[in-house]
Amino acid sequence: SLLAGFVMGSRLPRHTYGFIQHELFPYYFHIGSACAFLNLTLFAMYHPSELLSDEQMTQIFVFFVCVAASVLNTQWFGQVTSDIVADMHLVERSHGLGQEVGLFASKSCRQLRASNPSYGQLSRQLTLYWALSSLCNLCCIVCNGLSLYYLAARLSAL
Q1: How far apart are alpha carbons 35 and 144 in whole angstroms?
Q2: How many angstroms separate the CA atoms of 33 and 152, rounded?
Q3: Hey, is 13 helix, strand or coil?
Q4: What sequence ranges are listed for the domain TMEM205-like (predicted)?
Q5: Exposure of 78 by Cβ count < 10 A (0-12 exposed, 13-18 middle, 19+ buried)?
Q6: CB atoms within 10 A of CB 70
Q7: CB of 75 within 8 A of CB of 41?
Q8: pTM of the full structure
Q9: How far apart are CA 17 and CA 149, in angstroms?
Q10: What pLDDT does 107 receive?
Q11: Measured between alpha carbons, how far is 44 from 16 in angstroms, rounded to an integer?
Q12: Does 157 have pLDDT greater than 70?
């Protein structure tokens, strides 16, 4: 998904890329949430709470953090980010922008941001929510890495 995003972003008009991301992100976020919840549920089912070691309690906590970050992204950050992008596209379209190719804002978009306070505000909001969404994704990647480490460290015990 990350690689596809960079390839599409560098090859498609910005609004086309934004539309594709708007359509794909809900699936990505929901699948991530479902997998995180499934990991937590399966681990909890096979490790009764009265017998949990400190390491297993840590693993449950890691799974819970992953579920929380994933659900937060699914239900809030991802949706708000998509909504802001859609609002920005409306403003850009009204100024004849959005068909340029590339991930980074064109000179025209930078000028629009400087001259249009509401567009500038949308741009700042997008930066904030995109960063929060990215942090949630990064948190899930770290949690999954820790879970894989926990599992790999115990392979000899299987």
Answers
A1: 10
A2: 23
A3: strand
A4: 3-84
A5: buried
A6: 25
A7: no
A8: 0.85
A9: 35
A10: 81
A11: 42
A12: no
Burial environment of residue 128 by CB neighbours within 10 A (0 to 12, 13 to 18, 19 or more): middle
Main-chain phi, psi angles of 116, to 5 degrees: -120, 105
**Could you tell me the CA-to-CA distances from 115 to 12, 24, 104, 111, 120 in Å, in that order?**
26, 32, 18, 6, 8
In the block, which residue shows the tokens 């790999």? 152
> Distance (Å, rounded) from C-alpha 9 to C-alpha 83?
18
Evaluated on CA atoms 18, 19, 24, 27, the torsion sign reads: positive
Query: pLDDT band for position 1 (50/70/90)?
Result: low
Query: Dihedral of CA 119/8/35/136: which sign?
Result: negative
| Amino acid symbol at 91 | V
State residue 39's pLDDT score.
Answer: 93
CA distances from residue 6 to 2, 53, 54, 111, 142 in whole angstroms, order as listed:
7, 42, 40, 24, 21
Residue 116: C-alpha distances to residues 95, 98, 124 (Å): 11, 16, 12
Residue 80: Cβ-neighbour burial (10 angstroms; 0-12, 13-18, 19+): middle
